């Protein structure tokens, strides 16, 4: 019953995406297509690349020294005649000066910006995984609503027949049908209509939220301009659940997760590695602040021209050269504080990483235990509840047709069977949503994921229960 789609989603050509998008009005949208389109049409990725380009350009600019300064001046002009050759001290001076950076400031700033630029691919990888998770949640919500609508519609037709039968039986006074049975059946039919409207509302809300991920910006290429329109509520969600790949499933099957192993996996998450890059940038900031203790040097040179004397005596021109530097002697309230601030910022980044890791470990543990309980409930529904509620409904109907049961019991049994089927779908959907959330936490920037296939068919106690793990450990 399930499709053979695996997570992570494989790359799909743009022509395939276009063909899929144009046929949405006629064909169903599966999870793989939804995720691929959302990731393809995510304008955040382009914005991130532009920011990286800007940082890389700044890193190149950071290696360049400040522009030299040129000065042109007339010195010692006599105010009684403003004659250039009147006084021997009168000069036309042209000078140039160049300020040198403190220590290794330029190299450190260049390295800092390059390191900062290396963070952007990690942010894109994290965004890629987040979009996959978010779109998967929305698609599964839409699938649940659509499937629930189908199940209710199927039973609604049966209830309409039951109401007609009850009315005919009550009108002919044949059998034990009472007026309250007719009213009860009609009431349940109204309740089904209310449930239908509620589920239709959920479906429209989920597809409306999905549509934002498929909108193509106006700056898109000509080839993809056909995607420049939002998805509408007429799009049909595929009627079969996908098969998802659970990353590191063997690790997650264990009754107790090895915290060190899990921490090593989570350390490869792009969000965590992005914080590592932030830490490196902060460390470069400390190095940069330490350069303020070094003097800043400057060199200057000038050439002064003097005119000949009125008597014709030649006057020699002047050439001057010199250096300037400052003395960072009073460092207590400036350099020391700047270094202390940079060190504090670097330590704060370590705290951010610790908090993120703790939160991710807790989320993985929560989702893992949730997945185990869902697997147990899934097995219970498949092995007992669905079969028994169906047998109960058939038995109640048989008893009623043989004048040995109440009509209210027939209605109650049918409602119970419908609720059981809907609950089974909810469990299947929630299990796949849990897998999607786990895959986000266990994703890596290199997308080098390992894992076993997991779907609503093999998500059961045989695969995830404590007993099976104990057995595997015993065999090993």
How far do the termini sit from each other? 34 Å
Biggest sheet overview: 4 strands, antiparallel
Shape: elongated
Query: How large, in whole angstroms, is the Cα Rg?
Result: 38 Å
Beta-sheet strand percentage?
5-15%
Question: Would you report the number of β strands?
Answer: 8
Order of helices and strands: HEHHEEHHHEEHHHEEHHEHH
Major sheet: arrangement of strands: 2-3-6-7
Which structural class is indicated by helix and strand composition? alpha+beta
Low-pLDDT windows of residues: 1-26, 217-233, 447-476
Structure summarized in a few sentences:
The protein has helices at 14-22, 31-40, 43-62, 105-117, 119-172, 179-211, 249-253, 259-266, 270-290, 335-401, 407-441, 461-464, 466-475; strands spanning 28-29, 69-75, 91-99, 236-237, 244-247, 297-305, 318-325, 451-454. With 476 residues, the protein is of the alpha+beta class.
Keywords:
476 residues, alpha+beta, four-stranded antiparallel β-sheet, two-stranded parallel ribbon, 9% strand
């Amino acid at each position: 019953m399930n499709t053979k789609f695996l997570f992570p989603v494989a790359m799909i050509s743009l022509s395939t995406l276009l063909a899929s998008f144009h046929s949405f009005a006629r064909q169903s949208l599966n999870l793989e297509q939804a995720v691929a389109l959302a990731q393809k049409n995510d304008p955040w990725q382009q914005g991130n690349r532009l920011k990286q380009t800007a940082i890389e350009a700044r890193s190149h600019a950071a290696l360049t020294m400040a522009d030299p300064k040129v000065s042109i001046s007339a010195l010692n002009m006599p105010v009684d005649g403003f004659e250039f050759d009147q006084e021997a001290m009168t000069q036309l001076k042209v000078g140039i000066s160049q300020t040198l950076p403190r220590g290794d400031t330029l190299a450190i700033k260049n390295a800092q910006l390059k390191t900062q630029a290396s963070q952007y691919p990690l942010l894109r990888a994290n965004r890629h995984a987040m979009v996959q998770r978010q779109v998967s949640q929305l698609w599964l919500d839409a699938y649940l609503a659509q499937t629930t609508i189908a199940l209710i519609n199927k039973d609604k037709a049966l209830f309409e027949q039951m109401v007609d039968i009850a009315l005919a039986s009550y009108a002919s006074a044949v059998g034990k049908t009472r007026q309250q049975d007719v009213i009860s059946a009609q009431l349940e039919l109204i309740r089904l209509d209310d449930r239908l409207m509620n589920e239709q509302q959920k479906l429209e809300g989920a597809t409306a939220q999905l549509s934002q991920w498929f909108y193509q910006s106006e700056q898109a290429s000509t080839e993809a301009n056909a995607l420049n329109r939002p998805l509408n509520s007429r799009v049909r969600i595929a009627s079969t659940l996908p098969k998802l790949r659970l990353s590191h499933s063997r690790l997650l099957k264990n009754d107790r997760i090895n915290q060190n192993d899990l921490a090593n996996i989570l350390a490869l998450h792009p969000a965590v590695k992005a914080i590592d890059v932030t830490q490196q940038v902060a460390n470069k900031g400390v190095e940069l602040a330490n350069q303020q203790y070094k003097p800043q040097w400057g060199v200057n040179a000038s050439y002064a021209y003097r005119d000949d004397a009125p008597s014709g005596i030649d006057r020699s021109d002047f050439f001057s050269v010199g250096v300037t530097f400052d003395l960072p002697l009073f460092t207590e309230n400036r350099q020391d504080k700047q270094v202390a601030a940079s060190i504090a910022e670097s330590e704060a980044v370590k705290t951010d990483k610790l908090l993120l890791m703790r939160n991710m470990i807790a989320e993985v543990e929560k989702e893992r235990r949730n997945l185990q309980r869902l697997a147990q409930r899934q097995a219970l529904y498949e092995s007992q509840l669905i079969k028994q509620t169906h047998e109960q409904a058939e038995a109640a109907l048989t008893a009623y047709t043989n004048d040995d049961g109440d009509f209210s019991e027939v209605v109650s049994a049918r409602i119970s069977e419908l609720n059981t089927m809907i609950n089974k779908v909810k469990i299947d959907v929630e299990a796949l949503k849990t897998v999607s959330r786990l895959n986000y936490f266990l994703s890596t920037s290199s997308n080098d994921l390992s894992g076993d296939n997991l779907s609503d068919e093999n998500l059961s106690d045989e695969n995830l229960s404590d007993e099976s793990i104990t057995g595997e450990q015993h065999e090993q």
